[in-house]
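We modelled the chain as a single entity of 158 amino acids. Its sequence is:
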Amino acid sequence: MKMLMILTSMIFMFGCTPMQITPLEVTDTNNRSEVIIHRESAFTAGGVNMIFGANSNDYVKLGNGRYASMYLRPGNHELFVRSDQGDKPYLLNIDLPANETTCLRAFIDSSSVGVAVLGGPIGFLATRGSSTFNIEKIECLSKEKLSELKAVNVTYAE
């Protein structure tokens, strides 16, 4: 019982990394880069939300088997994925070309599988120093494959 109280206290002291979705900047239709990110459907960490963002801004929350399409300014961006459990983000520095589509695959970091399965206070404490998710640039999925996933809307600033 004492251990449970200590763990609960630690959670309140450290707190989770708050997710604050930032609306995307509206881009000029003649000078923008489309980014499509999909999260593979997996049993491990299936109940853990993944946050995708760029340059320290959270843009979208993706659950298992979901994808999002968004427009960013062309140029260099520091993209990231992390869980909503307070873990360390996985960073990907990438150049986004104007008027092209860049596709990304998000997946569970195999070195943190045990941590992701634990969840709760133990998982929270264990994930503070590692990343639950990774991303990589891939060839874009076919429309058929993309239609098997559920689309998540992103918001844009007015």
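As a brief sanity check on the tokenised model: The first helix runs from residue 2 to 14. The mean pLDDT is 81.
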